[in-house]
Amino acid sequence: PISGIIQTLHTIKFFYWIVDPSQRSGYQPKGCDGNRPTREQIIEMRRYMLLYLKQLVISSAGTQEEELQAIINYLHTVHEDENLIDVLNMAVNLMSEHPKTMVPAFDRRNGIRTVFKLLASSSESIRLQALKLLGFFLQRSTLKRKSDSMQPYNLFSLLADRLLLHPNSFTMASYNVLFEILVERISGLMVEKRSSEITADWRIENSSMIKVIATLLRDIPDSIHLYDIKIRFLDDLLLLSSTSRENRRIILQMSVWQDYLLALAYVYPTSDIQTEITDRVFQLLKLLLYHAIKFEYGGWRVWIDTLSILHGRVTREDYYKKINKMVENAKENDENEPKQSPSTPTASGSETPVDGQSAATPTKSTSNRQVFKSSRLLPFTISEFKYSPLHLRLLNSVFDSIESDVRLWRSDTTRPITDAINHTDNQIFCVNVVHIISQMADVLCNACGGLLPLLASATSATHEIEILENTEGLSSTEALRILKRVMGLSDLFILANSGSFSELEQEKSMPSGGILRQCLRLTMTNAVRHCMECRFQKYDASKTNLTLLTPKGTIRDPLEIILELTYLMQTSENDSNDDDISQLIASFIKNPESVLQELDIQRLRAIIYRDVVRQDRSKTGKNVVVVV
């Protein structure tokens, strides 16, 4: 016997339709002859029939997959929005209120196919209810069921493609439903503003939804409304990440998550709201990178990947900017081109045909278009890595996070800072910071002028120094400022670190003692720069802080003196960076009359001491002695 559920759906489909389905759905409806109830009456009757149908489903014993299949078939074969919406609402309510029977049956009957069919609808209400149906299914499914349903065909990516069919209809309500699926907190209402605030117990359950939302926000043309959604999305991610360590780890485990976030930022913002969005992106990057460096083994690789992805983003924007400039120049040349003067008779009385002249002599605009066309065919290539303003911004934000931890250790008066550095809980943090210092060592040496050119200038008879060109994308002031911060980190995380760097060197395929040799190059570059600046800058010797100098005849541990003089042990978080080059250099130079500054001498001593004590071969220490 045919069940009442199937009979009721058949009656709704063929007799109590709201819009004639013969055009789109392709089946012939009944009840077209005679007196037909009004639209409002049909809607009211459908409402009672669906209420009756819902009670039949609830009261039925066990799982009736054939009845659920009938509901899915209705949603799949009917294409008129008015004929769909009420049945779809009933299916969403059933999935929400009775997941124990509905979810397994929905999975076995491949109900997700119907969801993606509904997502192509031009009606936002249909799309939102389809997303709700998917959300309730994922929320009440086991991890294995979710994986088996979504991953084999990469359905999360398909979800973004389906929603992009109607890019101009992406509203805040659509975003809220997608965010509910992200955290699996599906509500029954479709609202522009959520009533519940994000708390520490909110967890990212479907991390692929971050890619879905970011793809939509990236591919949809910018508008004031889209800016609001971007800000809301970034604020939500900031709250999720700041309140939960597990959420940060989930995002970090995503593939190329940096690309999704950087796609929302603007390399060259043209308005205040674009600048605001970019600020939020870098605030989120700072939070995630700090977590990776602080807590995750191998977190330094996340930092390297972020620099590379950001470089690709900046290079691509520069390429587009260049192409746009070429287009503008071509248009200007076309507009400024003088009109062709009419042909005049020649001396023999014959006239040159106008068509012949235009065919034989190409105009300037034609030539420009040919040049532009040939130039446009140049392939896009990623240039050699260099630091852009966005790289510097990211670098400074990461340094700020690391230095905040160091100052927190420094504020603890119950133990020396070396105990915190060498504590087992901070070993991952220290290793990641050393990796970052190692990665930047050669870049900084080159950006500051190069160690060999600086040594040649310092030891020449005329003391002439070559003009220092900007290398690695860093100006002289930027390079010195970064060098100052890197040396402060090196003092603590390398010289004050009693651990061995052998495993770290093996991980980077470096020879034994490679980290200390890089530290030596940084120290020597820093010392020679100080020596050169003392010759070319004017200082007031009366203002020299003699209390910082080590009295002759006293023998102290070089590490102890370094901890007294180093940058991070002397400054506070509120200290501003010196934008003026003279002020920046003055912060380095404590004794202008000395060939080497006290801090540089103690750093060299510490490197020699550490290398001799901890390494089987003291080759690095001997090299330092020869250089000094």
TrEMBL record:
Among InterPro entries, the record links this protein to: ARM-type_fold, BEACH_Domain, NBEA/BDCP_DUF4704
| MF terms (GO), sorted A to Z | protein kinase binding
Q: Which residues form the signal peptide?
A: none
Q: Which domain of life is it from?
A: Eukaryota
Q: Where is the composition biased (Polar residues)?
A: 339-351, 358-368
Question: Coiled-coil annotation: which residues?
Answer: none
One Pfam match: DUF4704
Name the segments for region: Disordered. Answer: 329-368
Q: Name one GO biological process term.
A: intracellular protein localization
Domain DUF4704 per the UniProt entry, residue ranges: 2-311
Report biased composition (Basic and acidic residues) as residue ranges. 329-338
Give the GO cellular component terms, alphabetically. Answer: cytosol; membrane
Q: What is this protein called?
A: DUF4704 domain-containing protein
- Annotated organism of origin: Adineta ricciae
Q: What are the top taxonomic ranks of the organism?
A: Eukaryota, Metazoa, Spiralia, Gnathifera, Rotifera
